[in-house]
Amino acid sequence: MHLHKYERIWLIFGISSLVLFLVVLGVGAFYKGTQPPSHLATVDPTKVEEHEAFREENLGLRKVGENDYIVSVIASAFNYNFGKDDEGNTIRKIEIPVGSNVLFQATTTDVIHGFQLAGTNVNMMVEPGYINSLKTTFKKTGTYTLICNEYCGTGHHLMAFEVEVIDNE
Amino acid sequence: MNKKQHHKDESTTNLKGTFIAVMILGIFILVSWFIVFGIFLSR
Amino acid sequence: MNDKVKDINKDDGKLVMAHMYVAFISLFIGGLMGVLQTMVRSGTFTLPFGIGYYQILTVHGVILALVLTTFFIVGFQFALMSKTVGMSDQQRESAWFGYWIMLFGTITTAITILVGKANVLYTFYAPLKAYPTFYIGLALVVIGSWIACFTNFRQLALWKKHHPGEKSPLLAYMVVINMLLWFIATLGLAATVLIQFIPWSLGMVDTINVLVSRTLFWYFGHPLVYFWLLPAYMAWYAIIPKIIGGKIFSDSLARLAFVLFLMFSIPVGFHHQLTEPGIDPLWKFIQVVLTFMVIIPSLLTAFSMFATFELAGRSKGYTSLFGWFKALPWKDVRFFAPMAGMITFIPAGTGGIINASHQMNQVIHNTIWVTGHFHLTVGTTVILTFFGISYWLIPSLTGRRLTKKVNTLGMIQTFVWMIGMFIMSGSMHIAGLLGAPRRSSYSEYGGSEQATEWIGYQISQAIGGSILFIGIILMVYIFFYMVFAAPKGYTEFPMAEVSENAEPTPKFLENWKLWIGITIALILFAYTVPFIDMLHHSPPGSPGFEDLIR
């Protein structure tokens, strides 16, 4: 099939741009390890609290190293469960020092939920039977709202939680 | 001004305007993509 | 040439019009639901009579994305087939049979939504559970559309039998590609609805495999958007050139683009599932690469369109670099509306490339950016082209004239649409980058500062949405005017001829077995391993949750 000279140049240019995008994404994903959240572990959705990561005492923010944190969350309609504080009150907000490495892990006891920390790259699907997880380092301080971004029922838009990224004195 | 030699076989179909138009489109795609990629990196 | 145009058969015209009535009534209902949503989300309006936000959102999605599109496309494609290869009495009967099944299915689903038993949105993700008739109705729409598929296949096969050795008419070739795409894609939808959802919603089985159902849905969901886009491409490639007084730039490149769409629009569903657990990121990346392949035929199309315009202008004596631009019939709505759609496809397609970009998807996944994106693609590019088609298709079917008045109203309609969409989709894109979620009712998220910032953009969405609704009222008026009130007369059914400078079309483009074979091979390559993994490592299934949607 004959192509006009300009059309050949255009296609070479266009396809090269696409290849460039894929190389940039591929290097990020496979060399630097910034894959999209794709955790493969499964869990019985009726017994999530029996799983190590989601036992009562492990919920919410946990410091696991000098600069490393794990945040474990159980999503359900229409709430994010971050566990209870030392006085037995439901935790409504967590504070994370800026620059720390944070692993978010979440699962659900009922339907599909979204897990999006608005204005950050923390954005993943939480599906029954699966644990999803995502690693991030917060570069900027500020108050971020965790919201459910997948329709989960009549109260979907009420699912929210507050995450504050603070200066590390 | 125009130093390019016109090829005989393509002289019947002058598509210079088309070429410039699609190249503008291509640059628009490149710029937009890298803006969002920049947002991804900065977060 | 046997591409010779016959006048459209009167009985075929009735069949096509039956589809058009459903399409335009759907446009009105769906549009009304749309404007109501933007009002609710602006925080200034509450729905009366206990109607829920998610109920009208379900109606909006189902009736516009599934009903309007399918009926318009099937009807339009019957018109094209009737003009190019003809339709026998028997084929027309089967087409009507398919139509009634689709309509019955639509009504069944619609009633289920209206009584509030199916507030699951048009993607109906398990384990939210709707009443069984919601799924049964959808299955009937798909089955009805299959009858249309096989009627179209039969039409071309019969024509080829009577015209041995000839290449098939371009538009008939395109219709058959689109219906092949649709048939192969809907097999996934049918599988999840018939094997998973219906038995589960009827209580015959207790649980459903959520990830499998989502994967089958998105196996269907991406080719679905190409099923919408390809009829617009048909008009761009093979009808617009006639309207602007030009010729088809290249018959073979047009066919090549369609073949590439068939092959690469299906094995790409994972780019809708990029942030999900349970799928190996390597397979996600492989499908991202395949997704980027499907951009190539659109790059080809961009060139072909500009070239068609430039050659038409130059043949009229416009010699300067961009002089041909002025030669285009800007005041002819049959050109202007689809052209507005084409221009919109530049940001729309660019947004699509960004969405499919693997880890970058985390920036925009399930934010309202995505809603903004598909209101540009299907909601502007595709629908403005469909409106552009309607301006000549409807009067040519009803034996009336496309009057100056309709032309002027149509021009205004197009402007109104572009302005409304610029405001609405523009603010959706920006709010999405800030993190505002899609498919969510008005919420202040516990007084969050970020959410306060989004509300301003939600108000501009309501302004844009209201302007768009004016556009819808105008379009519905134009439709009924063209059906019942425009003066009787003749309106041309424009179909372009191929440029004499174009290369002859190579025979291999009609090698259906080859194209279908490659399509199936690509699907098997992209899906077999991850799908088997999914089944092997399945968690316990999910029971249904029907109380969460009441």
The CATH homologous superfamily of the largest domain in chain A is termed Cupredoxins -  blue copper proteins
| Rg over CA atoms of chain B | 17 Å
| Secondary-structure-derived class of chain A | alpha+beta
Number of domains of chain A: 2
Specify the CATH class of the largest domain in chain A: Mainly Beta
Mean pLDDT of chain A: 94
Q: What labels describe this entry?
A:
heterotrimer, A: 169 residues, alpha+beta, Immunoglobulin-like, 2 domains, 5-stranded mixed β-sheet, 10 strands, 16% helix, 34% strand, C: 550 residues, mainly alpha, Cytochrome C Oxidase, Chain A, globular, membrane (chain A), transmembrane (chain A), copper (chain A), copper ion binding (chain A)
What does this 3D model show about the protein?
The complex is a heterotrimer of chains A (169), B (43) and C (550). With 169 residues, chain A is of the alpha+beta class. Chain A folds into 2 domains: 1-35; 45-166, Cupredoxins -  blue copper proteins (Immunoglobulin-like). Chain A contains 1 helix and 10 strands, in the order H-E-E-E-E-E-E-E-E-E-E. In chain A, strands 1, 2, 3, 5 and 8 form a 5-stranded mixed beta sheet that branches. With 43 residues, chain B is mainly α. In chain B, 63% of the residues lie in helices and 0% in strands. Chain B is built from 1 helix and no strands. Chain B has one helix at 16-42. Chain C is mainly alpha-helical and 550 residues long. Chain C contains 16 helices and no strands. The radius of gyration of chain C is 23 Å and the shape is globular. The termini of chain C are far apart. The model of chain C is unreliable at 1-6 (pLDDT under 50). The chains are: A alpha+beta (169), B mainly alpha (43), C mainly alpha (550). Chains in contact: A-B, A-C, B-C. The interface between A and C is large, with 70 and 72 residues. Chain C: It is found in: Membrane. Chain C: Residues 4-484 form the Cytochrome oxidase subunit I profile domain. Chain C: Keywords: Electron transport, Heme, Iron, Membrane, Metal-binding, Respiratory chain, Transmembrane, Transmembrane helix, Transport.
